[in-house]
Amino acid sequence: MLEIIYPSASFILREGDPLTLNCTVWHQQKQPSDLKVYWCKLAENQNSCARVRKELERLLSTEHLNPQARVSLSLLLQIHNVSRSDSGVYQCRANASDQTAVGHYIRVNVTVPPAVTLTHDSSGVVVCHASAGKPAAEISWAQGNGRSIENKTHHTNGTVTTLSSMSMINSTNAHVTCLVIHPAMNQTQTIELSPKTTDFIPMTLEPHVLPGNLADNVVVSSVTGYRAVLSCSNMSLVNLISAVWKIRLRDGACCLLAYRADLNKTVRTNCSERMDWAARPDHDPTLQIHPVRLSDEGYYMCEIANIDGSLHQNYTLSVLVPPEVTLTLDISGTSLCKASAGKPAAQISWLPAGDHSTEHEIHTNGTVTVLSTYRVNNLKHEGFSLLLHYLLTGSTISCVIIVTILYCTLQHRGTYTTVV
């Protein structure tokens, strides 16, 4: 009679834990025989059982024992530091002559604790990673007020990465916590939400689309080098939640300047240092740009939110560029008036009217150079010398040219006039 005695069992271990399995065999022999006992690990289909660690196999002879004796034998299987490859179903087996005995199944599950990280990005999404765990971790959220999205990635080594993301846009919570539940551990991680990940909505607009309601758009013009001031909504700042400027520049770049009242924090994302609050944003969320550059052209939206709701104001900022003005006269009697790199294009006129031509050169940055040529050969009066004074953004540029009773008038949005 050959019998194996031990209970069926299941073990859940962490990588690195020790494992000891004990197999007790009873053998009552009627004649001398060899007794062989071993542990094996079942294949996944359980059609075969591979012996585990040959050094643990014992070959015992009972030929010198009393044929009626009952022999008890214990065989230990020891694994000092289990790894994920040790997971599986184990079984103790014995055979003696024509007898065979098998023990109960012992299931061993070696768990791998996941690496847990909690991050947030500028789009207002918080992401909890439970990486390379076995089995897959489960993730839940505390302080979250949005809908979470969960994905699981299965790796070739049997581990699973669980990723759960939650949008915290418009959340009033200062913190959010993710709870990771796993057989090897339970862990929580908490992250402080900066203003840019909560109340502040990212720019996801197409380059040609203006934020907010197009009907509310206000076109504002400013001259390069000067200060541009854009006021925000007249909404009450009592119980203010946030003030946000969302900007899409002409070249498609996005900028975000945002203030969150409960944290008294301002977040600047991709904004030039020239763009800033004109005053304390909780008192006056007006935006100022100083000095204005041509690259600042684009769409500007201010959004104010308090406990009663939110309002917004849209602007299109147009930047004017004064042209550089030159006037020359060659020996053939041709006068050339040039207004270089202005925006919009300058307008050049001549007095008295005569034979002249005008050309426009459009540059990639949106400025235009205007070139006007005036032929003075046929004028009846000659010999006048004039001192030319150009008034350009407050500075006086003087030059002397001898011409034949020639008047050149340069008009640029009614600001610049040159007379010869």
From TrEMBL:
Membrane topology: Single-pass membrane protein
GO annotation terms (biological process): regulation of neuroinflammatory response
Record flagged with keyword Cell inner membrane: no
Keywords: Disulfide bond, Glycoprotein, Membrane, Receptor, Transmembrane, Transmembrane helix
Positions of the Ig-like domain: 1-103, 106-194, 207-318
Main location: membrane
Cited Pfam families: C2-set_2, V-set
Subcellular localization(s) per the UniProt record: Membrane
Transmembrane segments: 387-410
Alphabetized GO MF terms: signaling receptor activity
A single cellular component GO annotation: external side of plasma membrane
Family, per entry: Belongs to the CD200R family.
Protein name according to UniProt: Ig-like domain-containing protein
Source species of the chain: Chelonia mydas (Green sea-turtle)
